[in-house]
Amino acid sequence: MKKLFFFFIVLLCNSASANSKDQLGSWIDSAERILRAQTSASVLSMAINKAEYQRDFTLLVLTDDRSEQQKVMVRMLGPALWRGNVTLKVDDRISFFEPRNKRTTVMSSSMLASSWMGSHFSNDDLMRETDLATHYAYQLTKSWQQDNRDYHLVELTPLPSAPVVWGKVMYRLYLEDGRVFPEQVTYYRRNDDAQPERTLTYSDVKLMDGFKVPTVMEMRISDKPDEYTRMHYQKIKFNSDLAASKFTEQAFL
Amino acid sequence: MGLYIRLAWRNLLRNKKRSSVTALGITLGIGFCITTLAIMDGLSHDLITGTTQGQVGHIQVHEQDYLAKRQLQQTIENNSQVVAELRELSSVKAAAARLYSFGYLSKGNKSIGVSLLGVEPEHERQVTSLAEQIIDGSFLSQPTPWPKGQALSEEQLALDEQLTEQAIANAFAELDGLDTTSSELQSHTNELIDTLAPLPFSLPNVILGVKLAKNLQANVGDEITLLFETAQGAQQSLDLQVAGISRQGTDLIDRTRMIFHIQDLQKLLQLPNQSHEIAISTIDLNKVDLAQQVISDVLAASYPKLSVQTWSQLRPDILALIQSNQALMGTLVFIIFLIAGVGVMNAMLVSVMERRKELSLLKALGLKGPNVVWLVTIETLVLTFVASIAGLVMGVVLGSYLQKYGWDISQFGEFSLAGVGMTSALKAKLTLNNLFIPVIVMFVIALLAALYPAFSAARLLPAQGMRAS
């Protein structure tokens, strides 16, 4: 009987802490989904600034998270050399289409970590999975008030055997009008690194399709302070009924 | 002296069986040592030529940080001029530029990550045996005719912007549910791309590694598609044709390597007149350090950003492997000799003990102690001498056979040492050192082995010795 009682206490404690963990998890999940919703279609410009080259792309990005399969399609609208290129990701399968020779190349998931079109975003970043909301354990590091907003800094450490490359992620987010906004995400290669490897910053909150969302995302690598890739959303349409046929390789042609 | 040799010879012949068994030990010891050393030298030689001719060349030139980071942009600029200057040097036999990158190769619905290598076919032939590794089809020869890309004119740039605007407008319309497929947009775009990055007139020829070709099920003449990233970070794909299939012998290389004509790869990666590596073959591999000095001096003046390294600096692992092999063989040879030496000592000791009576008699008749030592030592040396000649003959016969025909080890499968593909027949290499070092060492050991029996013979007391039965 004593044992049973003890067991319940433990269970109670567990679920209590699980509750607050769930809270953090759902914050991260909402913050990660702020630019995706159920489905999203957006036009954005991407500026890549590297020592070797500068480049501006215009992209059309479609996402669909309504079913179990997460689908993302990126079509490049300009400039000429890239216009019509399509990258499609359905779960772990990435395919790349080039309109000039109408070839589709299917890449293995080993390519997920490599850079997308020479930017500072990897294939995986761009095809943003809700990785941060699933593969990590959360811990609230700090909470504070600023500009009438509730700010929180959440430390994410990968769950054992999680298929992720980061040892630690610090997620700064704030709550406003009951919605969660991401502000800065710093990625650490190892858990005890003092210096983050890269930093993703969200800024310039604007009204898009009836929702306030950050419209600028900037990725910087700590090793190369002069380099960055900046994505600037120009138009977003949320929760429209995107046809499933848009996310197939047949749609490339 | 002559008397001692005669005496020694007669003594040896008195017990022919024992003498010949001892001699056989020495003969086999020397014969096998010569063969082992010859195989060892052959292996070292194969390793060095495998390294230098297989891939590395004698000397390589790189952009100074290339080897540490191997980034696409760390190239040797003005490649054709640098190579031309190198070819003029008297110590340089041949120089071949190379370009490296990575890509994603597909045929049908199979795709594999590959490493790309661009070579100058004619010059590469003189530096490495790359061209001889072709097992099907043919090696590369001419670069693919490929028009030069041009920057867009003001007008075209304006058109490009206009097309982007139109694509955005189409995309917006698409978001609002309108259907806006526009083939005109793509055809205008294709015209612009043809100006910027024109396609070659024919499909560029490439050589695939044998396992890569097998995994893709690609044969000579097949069309394949390569997805790659240019030096400007643009992802592009291009159709290619398989011209040949090569077998280098190293699993990794045969599984991932794809060879281009360097000019084709330069076009592909948009790195005109640039290379990552210049491999040089010198006149004399033994004077490679001197050649390195000359080349560094020549390049330092006009190209301070380049670094020059010899094969042993580039592949210190090979040199270490050779040295550790030699140390291992040295130990083995020493053990063989030690056993042979103990055999000699045993034989001489028994022989001395058997002849206690007559040695005592000799001493009683006035033979001095040192002379007894001398007699026994001469006996040992004569035995060793005769056995050495037999051993030399055996070593030369066995060694020359292995030098000519090699030792077929192909039943153990293809093998490579430290990434150097080796021939399947282990070939020996006889040198003067290999022949005489075992003989000299055997003599020294025999001499040392003779000392104990000789001194125990010298210490015999004639009175006691003669009485023994």
Structure description:
Chain B: One of its GO terms (cellular component) is plasma membrane protein complex. The complex is a heterodimer of chains A (253) and B (469). Chain A contains 3 helices and 13 strands. With 253 residues, chain A is an alpha+beta fold. In chain B, strand 6 (223-229) and strand 7 (235-246) form a beta hairpin. A 6-stranded mixed beta barrel of chain B has the order 2-3-8-5-7-6, surrounded by 4 helices. Chain B has 469 residues and is α+β, with helices and mostly antiparallel strands. Chain B has 3 domains: 2-52 and 318-467, no CATH class; 65-147 and 204-304, no CATH class; 150-196. The mean pLDDT of chain B is 87. Classes of the chains: A alpha+beta (253), B alpha+beta (469).
Describe the secondary-structure layout:
The complex is a heterodimer of chains A (253) and B (469).
Chain A: H1 2-33, E1 39-49, E2 54-64, E3 71-78, E4 86-90, E5 93-98, E6 103-107, H2 123-126, H3 131-134, E7 136-146, E8 149-158, E9 168-176, E10 179-188, E11 198-208, E12 211-221, E13 228-238
Antiparallel strand pairs in A: 1-2, 1-13, 2-3, 3-4, 4-5, 5-6, 7-8, 8-9, 9-10, 10-11, 11-12, 12-13
Chain B: H1 2-14, H2 16-56, E1 59-63, H3 66-69, H4 79-88, E2 92-107, E3 110-119, H5 121-127, E4 134-137, H6 154-175, H7 183-196, E5 205-209, H8 210-216, E6 223-229, E7 235-246, H9 251-256, E8 257-261, H10 262-269, E9 277-282, H11 288-302, E10 306-310, H12 311-314, H13 316-354, H14 356-364, H15 369-405, E11 407-408, E12 416-417, E13 420-421, E14 425-426, H16 432-458, H17 462-467
Parallel strand pairs in B: 3-8, 5-7
Antiparallel strand pairs in B: 1-9, 1-10, 2-3, 2-6, 2-9, 4-7, 5-8, 6-7, 11-14, 12-13
Organism (chain A): Pseudoalteromonas caenipelagi
Signal peptide (chain A): 1-18
Keywords (chain A): Lipoprotein, Signal
